[in-house]
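Box S1 | Example of a co-folding query
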Amino acid sequence: MVGYEQIFERNRKWVADKLAKDADFFEKLAADQTPDYLYIGCSDSRVPANEIMGLEPGDVFVHRNVANLVNNTDLNVMAVINFAVKHLHVKHIIVCGHYNCGGVKAAMQPKDMGILNPWLRSIRDVYRMHAAELDAITDEQKRYNRLVELNVIEQATNIIKTANVQKSFQKNNYPIVHGWVFDLHSGILIDLDINFKAILKDIQKIYDLTGIESEYNEDGE
Ligand code: CO
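Box S1 (continued) | Returned holo structure for cobalt (II) ion
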């Protein structure tokens, strides 16, 4: 374990390294942020967004929670998506799950998880929607991995359901929503290659929010 005091030593070294490569690094960083990516991932300590993507500070806007969920009543994640789309004009939104996700595993257990019950219910809902496919997988590890993937796809679909994303895409042809999985055993990022346009077209039969004049304000979901 890294001692508490060591963190500050490491910070000073990190600053020195950055300045050695670019004397204006922090001046540029302080000026503005114009990230092209919004990353929504799991809070798991083993899946650090910038590091696995090889991106620098300023390159990616990040939101993380237990099991990378996008619930439409979660003001936190909805505010992040709103800000990223309407103000930062991100070109890509990524939902990144990971195999060996404790949140997904917990949702597969017949157990009272306290405050986590309502949170993990979203994952149980994903299981219910795909029960036929998942129950057909006899190997438990494979079934667990598939639930991780299906959860990513469902959360990406939830992003596509939002008015901000639909309206921005109609006007600008971005953002594109992606679903990824990080494999802890290999360190490899896997693109699930979700078909953004096909999902958008399909869900707009029910979730088309582009033509509705909001009674409240432009930010209405
Ligand atoms: Co996780």
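Residues 140-160 form the longest helix (21 residues). The chain has ten helices and five strands.
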